[in-house]
TrEMBL record:
Any GO molecular function: DNA binding
Keyword set includes DNA-binding: yes
Organism name: Candidatus Portnoybacteria bacterium RIFCSPHIGHO2_12_FULL_38_9
Listed SMART domains: BHL
CDD domains: HU
Highest taxon in the source lineage: Bacteria
Pfam families registered for this protein in UniProt: Bac_DNA_binding
Annotated protein name in UniProt: DNA-binding protein HU
Keywords from the named record: DNA condensation, DNA-binding
GO CC term, one of those recorded: HU-DNA complex
Database matches in InterPro entries: Hist_DNA-bd (IPR000119), Histone-like_DNA-bd_CS (IPR020816), IHF-like_DNA-bd_dom_sf (IPR010992)
Source taxonomy: Bacteria, Candidatus Portnoyibacteriota
Similarity section: Belongs to the bacterial histone-like protein family.
């Protein structure tokens, strides 16, 4: 499902597609802002969005075989909740 398809699905519960688009964008912006601050976003029954730290490591350039240093970084992570896992089974 794409973002546009999600907006269409939500629009059936709203007054307009524009309103549904604003709701989806507001939710995604709120999650993004919370994660950028380092906060967790827990949606009970759905899952938890959080930030994970990746340590620096050494990699290999596949073209040349040369070893390269990969810097440490932060990446978003999602852990599905029990209700979501059960719904997918």
């Amino acid at each position: 499902m794409t973002k546009d398809e999600l907006i269409e699905a939500i629009a059936s519960h709203c007054d307009s597609k524009k309103q549904a688009s604003e709701v989806v964008n507001a939710v995604l912006d709120a999650i993004t802002k919370a994660l950028s601050k380092g906060d967790k976003v827990a949606l009970t029954g759905f899952g938890v969005f959080s930030i994970s730290n990746r340590a620096a490591r050494t990699g290999v350039n596949p073209r040349t075989g040369e070893k390269i240093k990969i810097a440490a970084t932060k990446v978003p992570k999602f852990k599905a909740g029990k209700a979501l896992k059960d719904a997918v089974k």
